[in-house]
Amino acid sequence: MRKQIVAGNWKMNKTESETIQLINELKQQDLNSEVEVFIAPTYVNLSAAVKSTTSSEIRIAAQNMHQSASGAYTGEISAGMLQDIGVEHVILGHSERRAYFGETDELLKEKVKAALEAGLGVIFCFGEELEERKSDTHFDVVKQQLSTALFDLDATQWPQIVLAYEPVWAIGTGETASPEQAQEMHAFIRSLIREHYDYACADGVSILYGGSVKPANATEIFAQADVDGGLIGGASLQAEDFAAIVNGF
Ligand code: 13P
Fold it and tell me: Considering its fold, how many domains does the chain have in total?
C-alpha cells in the first residue's frame, strides 16, 4: 500500500515566531493518522520547526539544497547540513526554482543524487507550463523531466523518492487541474516508471498533486486512483485549511 502524503510548501512565508505559532496550531488539529504530513518552512526556520515538532507526527522538509557537500558556495546549504539538524526530506525541482533560479533537470539530477547520498528523502517536483499543455506536449515534457533527473537512479533508491506533479498553470492561480486531468497524468507517470523499472517500483512510489489544492477540492483529487496526496502552497499557511486537506482522504 502506497503512503498517503500531504506536504505543505510554505515558500518564503512566516518568521520564526509565526512558524512556531502555525506549528502549534497544526498540532492542535485532529489530523488523519493514516496520512504522512510534512511541512517545509524556510531555511532559517527549519531548526525551530524540527524542535517544535519532535513530539508530533509532523515531519520537516527543506525547500531546496545545493548539490555539493560543502565548499565555496556563498549563500548555499548542503544536504548534510539539513540532515544534521533533523530535516528528513527536501523538496527539489519546484517550478519556482526552475523559473526564477534557472534550475534544470541536469542540475536536479545532481541535487537528487546528493540528497539521497546524505540520507534525505526527496519530494521531486515537475510539471508542464500552460503553453505546453495547450500545445499538447505535456506528456512529453513530463517524460523528459523525469527521465533526465531521476531515471539514472537505481530501483533500490526509489523508496526515498516522492513525486509531486505540479502543472505550472495551476500553481497559485486558483485554477486546479481537474481530477480527471490529474489522474490521467499520474497514471502516465506511473506507467513510465513501470516501463523503466518494474511494477514494484511504480506501484510503491507516492505521486502527489500540487496546484491550487484547497479544502473544497482536495477530496475529489485525492480520490483518484493514482493520486496519493498533495503538495500544498497557499492553503498550507492556515492550520484549519491544511488540516481539512489532510483529512480530505
Ligand atoms: P498553491 O497551492 O498555492 O497553488 O501552490 C502549489 C505549490 O506550488 C506547492 O509547492
Answer: 1
